[in-house]
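Ticket #427: bound-state structure for L-homoserine.
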Amino acid sequence: MENCEKKIKIGLIGLGTVGSGVYKTLKSFKNVEVKKIAVRNLNKPRNIEGLDDSIVTDKPFDVVNDPDIDIVVELIGGLNPAYDLIKTAIENGKHIVTANKELLAKKGEELFTFAEEHNRVVLYEAAIAGGIPIIMPIKTILAGNKITKIEAILNGTTNYILTKMDVQGASYDAVLKEAQELGYAEADPTGDVEGFDAAYKITTLATLAFKKRIKIENVYREGITKIRAQDMHAANDLGYKIKLIASAYLDENDRADVRVHPMLVSKKSTLAHIDYVTNAVSISGHPVGSITLSGPGAGEFPTASSVVGDILAIAAELGTTDYLLPMMRCKHESAAVPVNIADTENKYYLSINAKNNKGVIGKIGKVCEDNNISLASLVQRGVSEDNTAEITVITELCKERDMQNVIAAFEKDDSINKINSLIRVQI
Ligand code: HSE
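RESOLUTION: The complex was predicted; output attached.
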C-alpha cells in the first residue's frame, strides 16, 4: 500500500554529524526518500550503512536545482554558500529545513519573507537547542500566550566547560584544553566561548517568542573566557552557580532586552542544575506561567530528531493543500525596540582585590552608596601574605550605568588593586 504512494524527495546538503543522523533516521520512514546528498569532500570515508554513493555529489547546487526534490535540508552552517543555496532552492519551489542558527539570526527576516513570497516554508527546529522541541511548541500549542521572558542555556560547549570548572575547581584554560582533547570543544572555540552561538540562537528564539524582530546587532554578548575558578568557588559559597545564560525580556512597552552573558543563578533555580552539554529553555508568559524544557542541545541523533520532525511535518501536508503549515510560518514584520545594556537594571557579583588599608571596606560601601547602589552581601576572609584582600560583593538591584560608574571610581582608587570580575546575578 505504502509503496504505491508517491515518496517525498529529500535533498540533503551536508553529511557531517547531523546529516548522517538525519540520513540514518529517515531510512525507517517509507514516505520519504533521500534523492541527493551534497558533501564537501567526496573522498572522505563515511561509515554509513547502506549509503548509495551514486546519490552523493560535491555540487550542492545540483541538489537545489534538482526538479524532483521537494524538500531541501541544509546542514552545512555558516552564511555562505548556505544563503545562496536556500534562496535558489526556494526559487525552485522547494521547502526548507535548516539547522543554521547564524543564517537565521543574520538573514532570517529576508529568508522568511522570500519564502512567503514563493509560498514555501522554512522550518528550523534543530537550529535552537538541538533536540529540545521548542520552536514548534511556541508556534502551535503556546500560540495563545504573550511570552515576556526567556532564560536559557543554549550552548553545550560552554555549559560543559563551566560545569567542569565547578566540579573540578579547575581553571578555564585547563578545562578548555581537556574539552578540546575530548572533542567537546572545537579547535577554534571562539564561536562557542565568546557567546556568538548562543547569541544567534536567542536572536531567533526571542523574535519568535515575542513576535517582534530582534536584530543580532542589538543583542548584548559576553563570553565565559574571563570566569575564574575563584568566582565559581565564591558563587557556590553564596548559593549560586555560574552559567552562560541567553536571556530575553519584553517590557510592557514592547522594548526587548536580549543578551548573552555569564550569570550567577541561584542553586534553587532549575537552570543551576542543567549541567555538562545539556541545554535548557525557560520561558514565562501568560496564561501558561513558567515552563522549562531541557535536553540534548547538540549531537547526531538529538539534532536529527528535530530535523526529521520538520521534514515529516512538511511531507505530511505536501500534495494535500496549497498553503502548508500556516502556523509554522514566520510573518512578524515589526521590529522590537531594543534596550541598551547601559539602561538595564541588574544585581551584580563583584570580586575586588584590595590593599590591606584601613577603611577599604568602608570606601567600597561609600562609592556604591554615592552611586545609588545598595549591597546585599560583602565577604572578606582574612588578608593574604602579600597584604592584599579578596573582597566579594553582591549588590541589590541597580542600574548598569551606576555600576559602570562604580567600576570607574574603583579603578581610580589607590587602595583597590584590581576588579577581578563583574558578573550579573539572576534576579
Ligand atoms: N556548538 C554548539 C554547542 C552546538 O556547543 O552547543 C551547535 O549549536
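RESOLUTION NOTES: The first strand starts at residue 8 and ends at 13.
TICKET STATUS: resolved
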